[in-house]
Amino acid sequence: MICSKRLKFISSFLCRPKTVxxxxxxxxxxxxxxxxxxxxxxxxxxxxxxxHVIAVPTDTIYxxxxxxxxPQAIKKLYAIKGRDSAKPVAICVTYIEDVRKWGNAxxxxxxxxxxxxxxxxxxxxxxxxxxxxxxLNPKTIKIGIRIPQNxxxxxxxxxxxxxxxxxxxNFSNEPSTLSVKEFEHLYGHLGAVFDGGVLSEGLERNRTGxxxxxxxxxxxxxxxxxxxxxxxxxxxxxxxxxxSIE
Length: 246
Prior knowledge:
The protein has 246 residues and is an alpha/beta fold. The protein is built from seven helices and eleven strands. It has an eleven-stranded mixed sheet, sandwiched between helices. Helix 2 (40-49) crosses helix 6 (151-160).
């Protein structure tokens, strides 16, 4: 089944983001699968198809991922994080055409998008009608979209061929994680953990994750989170004639 009946218990926790992750029912501990294993990316796509939340490497930090258009999977993602449902999560896709399908990017040139993506940047746009999960970012009309520069997650998104919700692999308000050992306390709530080794060279400054920039308005940009590629992204945006709105 796409969304397991086991997930029904989650809704009762969603209003208590500070304690939900501690009190969630523990399923069996997730299997840790090396990303280098044959067909590991196909296994990841199947876990997503089955409605699970999994841990995956990106080009910055480890993330928790699930099917973005599966309501029960999104509910579970928020419950695992202990996250307020008003706080948005991003989606991960494969191609620039996918960015345009799920986000309103008519005002952005292909040249600009191809310069920004793939890479450690999250582009925030207004959702299109195709992204119709009422539990995905219900408090905003916008969505952050990523194309990480990571071979494993790129293969997963290509096989899954649907948007993947993506947020950092930690409890809310905890530091982001650069290795799978750092979020072992989440294993009991995950379908699987895909181990891509130590990310971002293990550098503490890279725990800030991707640079998040709102490009939803014509001719302007707003930096929401500086992240690890702030200077490069600002240069690209201003070279393309966009002006900052703080």
